[in-house]
Amino acid sequence: MSLLRRLGAVALAAGVVLPSAAYGLSLDEAIALALKSNPGLAQSQAQADAAAARLRQAKAGRAPTVALTGEVGTGETDLGGFFGFGRANVDPRAAAIEVRQPIFTGGAISASVTRAREGQDAALAQLGGTRALLSALVAEAYVAVLSARELLALHEAQVVQMQEVARQADLRFTAGETPKSDLSQAQARLAEANAGLARARGEVARSRARFVSVVATDPEALEPLPAAPSTPASLDEALSEALRSNAMLKSAQASARAADAGVRYAQAGRAPSIALAASASSVRDKFFPGYHAHDTTVSVQGSWTLFSGGAISARVSEAKADARSAHAAVEAAEASVREAVIGAWSDLTTTRAMLVAAEDQSVAAVSALESVRHEVRVGQKPALDLLDAHREALAAQSAVVAARGGALTAAYRLQALLHGA
């Protein structure tokens, strides 16, 4: 018997029909909406864009630079008769252009590019991890809404049944067929059912608020729960895949490689740098009226810092310390991923086993409820047994709803750990 048929059987046993659902928004559509509007994801995307810009900036260090300077002015000069010049108006103009091409930087440019590229990889991994985590959060919110609504319908049906049981108990007590204790027990169970209904209504409101917070839209009409995403066949496979693809771990590894490149960049400060430069300039009226000069130069320029007061050594030490910290973070991330995957796998296998057991329990509870209802009707059992049977049937149904939703959310959490990047 399918799960929906089992739930239908329980509903019929309770004497009610569950309300038909209006289908609209699917889980995949809800995830897509969240990916468009989530501020945390937008922040991660901005960080990835900034990392891409830093990579372009680092690569630009390999290209030549062209600088153009110029000056235009007007004024008056008075040389006091020197060189035969007296007072005169001048219009000084000057222009210069320089092209500079790095030839050797001690590895600084290559290290800078590597550091920026690994930084971009780290940012992209974080972005993928944020997407995967958001998908899992949406799935959890989606499940919570549907489960809360289903439980509300079950509690509403329970209240209806308890009202009828209490009414029948009152009639029998008035007719002198049953003691007052039967009526009191029925009224107590009705109050219990009303309390459960109030809790179910509150859970519906909380689940709706959570859904709006995560997805940024009202869950007015949701499609039924989809099949759970595929998962590895064993824990060993899950761990192997996570250690290969987990977003947090890939980000930590890329950050460690970027830190290693940072060490090489700092060490390049001890090496000389060489560049090829070419310049051309033109000057008019710079010093004397009618003066003009033109200049063209091609040169090889070099610099080498021989003493920096320990600044370069301090930068190298700082970079090496950052690298040690980054590699330690990789080890911590690997341990954290292992722990999270084992926990997620345990949750998944547990909820799947609980779902099978809850479905079996629900079928048995429905059958028991029907039997007890008949036995109470013919006087073979007291009314209290019927009240207990209703309670057990509701508990079994609630367990099915919780286990079904728990299995789906556990699968999405595991997926977020395996395929974050």
TrEMBL record:
PANTHER family: OUTER MEMBRANE EFFLUX PROTEIN, OUTER MEMBRANE PROTEIN TOLC. Signal peptide: none annotated. The keyword Transport applies. Keywords: Cell outer membrane, Membrane, Transmembrane, Transmembrane beta strand, Transport. Belongs to the outer membrane factor (OMF) (TC 1.B.17) family. The keyword Membrane applies. It comes from the Bacteria. InterPro entries: OMP_efflux, T1SS_OMP_TolC, TolC-like. It is found in: Cell outer membrane. This is TolC family type I secretion outer membrane protein. It comes from Phenylobacterium koreense.
